[in-house]
Fold:
Amino acid sequence: MSVISLNAYRSYFDDERGLSDLGSYYASWFVGVSRFPDNQWVVEDKTGQQIIRFDVAVAPNELLTDNEDLCYAVKLSAYLARAITHDRKTGGLLSGASQYNYVNNIINHVRWLRLQGVNHLSSVNDGVFAFFRDSIANPLYVRLNLEDRLREKLDELQGIPACLEQYKVFRSRVGHVEFNNNKLSEALGVSDRLLGSAGSPMVVMLTNFRQHNGFYIKNSIKDRYAGGSVKETAETSSQDSIRKELTSISKLYRQCQIFKDLFPVSQRIPEDYFQKNNINPQKISKNMGRAGERTRDIPQPIFFELMDRAIRWVVDYAEPLLELGSQALAQYEEYVSQVGRGGKEVHKVHYASKKMRFWLSKQLEWLDGHPGSPYPISGFTKDTSAKNFESVLPAEQIQNGHALRAQGLTYQEIGERLGVSKATAHNLITKGVAVSGASLNKCLYHLLPTACLLVIYCFTARRQFEVESLQAGCCVDTPNGPVIRMYSAKVYQEHEYFPVTKLVAKAVRVLEALTEPVRNGESQSLLTFPALGGGEINYWSSGKVNEFAEYVGVPDNEGTPWQFSEHQFRRFFAMMFFYKFESGDLATLSWHLRHTDFEMTAKYITDKDFRRAFEEIKAERIVSFAQSAANARTEALCGNMQKELGDFFSSFDAVSESRAEKMIGKVEEIGYILNFVPDGACFGQTPTLLERSKCLMDDAVQTSSACRGSCVGCPNLLGFETGISAEDVGLVLDPASSPMLKAFADRQGAHNV
Structure:
């Protein structure tokens, strides 16, 4: 008896209605039950999760999911963009965040096409693409004609009260009637995020509309936009935004050619119009986009001063602060218990806090006079500084209050004389005096973590996310020195171990000590801290570096804060190589830089952003050498290159505002190559100077075999009178200026004996 094969009839037994061509595949980046057919994807990578929605508006009152083929095409493009390659050189997307941004760019392109009357991707033609190409410099809201369409919609709602009523949302929890922005964005076929873009004309129009019709508005929004007028002309899009958008869209057009058969017939773009018109996203963005304003680079002396203070906090001040934190908690509990059982909790806290201010003012007195030290501590959980009270208590009243108190008047009598209450008179006397310093809570959980992060940023040159995602236990000691486990977001796309200095390891240990009370099995973050007053503090880096800089007395940018970016931290990392031998006035930093082997950074230099910072600093350093050679500070320099660099500096117009920029450009044009040898700075590897090098052998400069005195007389040497290879720490700094350095010098002295 023959057996009937059921393979041809499997569809009668298996329910495949929920599967698309890719639906049966479970991508590694999907989270939980997320699958390709879903209208909402939860995707992840090693950095976290992202939610990607496809049930979004693409035309007035129409969702992307309403057009099944179009929605499938967008999903397929997002899937392919991440799945076809994991090689960044070929343009593959490697992270959930990148995939999220990719989908947004594609959906915005669909919105623009729908506005032009193009309902299917297969209807794109030369004329449509030319119009798109010519309009790309305009912001998205301009290309979508959103300003005019919003104005028409608001006028329509204003004229029909019944329709306006449908946009009211009552929030019972807060008792406010709010305007339904989500409903409005769907009616316009755009995202609610685009409607709320900060500084856009839509925000001004919506704020005025909501205010006119009695809807709730946050005070911050009302203060900024209410009563404002709409700008007549929109600013051109930035080069970065144009490049990123075009890069995403060009991938969609290319996919439709390479994977043509996978796309629904109605969504197959006929040609790769980017390739046909020789459109390069990088080039067109530079030609049509607005160049971003260059952030002023932080000068080397200021950055070194900031890092000197940060290192002091990590090395010299961290342990005393941690010890003081434990003692202060015990002292606070003792003061609270002194109130007795009958007192109200608020009164206990007030009494204990007041007592703590006096107790803390007597702590860490030995740090008085140390650069940027946390002494004095002004309070337990709250700062008691002059700024807090001068805003509400006039300086003249404070002065008069103290004068009357000195005459023996009571607070009641002072209040009557000044026309204020007894309580206010008391505040004038007890709180009106300017108090320096910060609270212990701020020192422990704001300033100290900032110092630790500054050290980690600058001595690893890693990105913000990579640093701020560090976990407890990430730093490990090895026979060759400490290494740190960090996520490499761009180069390796996985966690890697990087060699670091002992200073970085110390900073990590400080963060581990600070976070130990709140870490648990679910979270080992190094940026969640316990608050002295109870609860937890999630560290937010915005503004913290400038706050630290102001506290430790580092100069600002002519009255405005410095812009501390990843690029600035990479510049500092490069400064360690090119400037490390002339920072003896900054004791702690100088010592650590002298003991940092630049060769250990080989893994970092694969980053093109770091290479750019490295080249910038090298050029700036050569220019500074040239300036020193040309002015009165020549006693520290010697050798043939002193005269050549001096002549180079003098050849530029002394009154030109762009003198430094021109010199840096010329340095790059000449191709100067700078290395350090024991006798000073070597320019021997510069192609135009190579042949005259004293140590030239087999067409190569023998810098690796250089020793003290071997380079004297070489035409390519910019000699340093003191040399740069002294091992004795006392030759370049005063150990007494730092407790850590003094201890080191003492140990060295004992060892030498």
Q: What stands out?
A: The radius of gyration is 33 Å.
